[in-house]
Amino acid sequence: MYFFLDTEWADTLGSELVSIALVSEDGGHRFYAERDPLPATPTDFAQHVVYPLLERGRAAMTDQAMTTGLRTFLGADPEPVVLADYPNDFSLLRYVLEGFELPDEQAAACGPIPQPVMSRMLKEGAMGMLVEDYFAAHPEAAARRHHALVDAEALRQAWLAVTGHIPPPAWARTLTLQKMQPGQR
To answer: What InterPro entries is this protein classified in (predicted)?
Structure first.
């Protein structure tokens, strides 16, 4: 099964995870988690854009709980394939799967480590334009852009449209323009 990944982080290096989300190709399986506690010294962007979007409550997890939850989620599929549009998303996914910096016995208690196939989707070209089309057509999602689950869903929708898994949605201006003949625009 394909899973669409997005993460948010608090530092300029992209090493301090804030939140992580995965959405399955069919949209029926979702994993969303936020670090608890959050990184104490976020960038201005993280503090003023990302942190206000966080859900906290049940989504707020300790590192051990997040690792256990993510291993269980991805481990439920025998051959998970994870797609993301930014290389750092994969680094943070691996960091969570490996158990952050938990002591060995705590990391081992989180269960077996799944080995998903990871593939980067290019933001350039049709995929990037379709993500922008999605946000332009969904103002409620655009208002929550940089929430990891919202961004993972936008990536999933763009992938479904560009690969022909769904008929071109009305919001997919990019696909409509590509199918027009020159002079029709």
So the answer is: RNaseH-like_sf, RNaseH_sf
